[in-house]
């Protein structure tokens, strides 16, 4: 096997214009997440109230965490 000269590729492609780099992708628009001001119970439908990062139903006692969707 003969010795391979890596410079021949550079000499062959020297006349070609360099390929322009693709522009960076545009950032995704910021989506504002609205936090509901009123919460309604999943069980009985009564308006719930916030208490120390817990959302509590005054009617049936159902509780959920404030980080739940």
Notes on the structure:
- It is a single chain.
- With 69 residues, the protein is mostly beta strands.
- The chain has a domain at 38-69.
- The protein is 9% helix and 19% strand.
- The relative contact order is 0.13.
Give the strand order, joined by hyphens, for the main sheet.
Answer: 1-2-3-4
Instruction: Compute the separation of the termini in Å.
Output: 67 Å
Class from secondary-structure proportions: mainly beta
**Poorly predicted tracts of residues:** none
Total beta strands: 4
Helix content: under 10%
The biggest beta sheet reads:
4 strands, antiparallel
Radius of gyration: 32 Å
Number of helical stretches of at least 4 residues: 1
Query: How would you sum up the global shape?
Result: rod-shaped
- The averaged pLDDT comes out at 77
Strand-residue proportion: 15-25%
* Helix and strand pattern: HEEEE
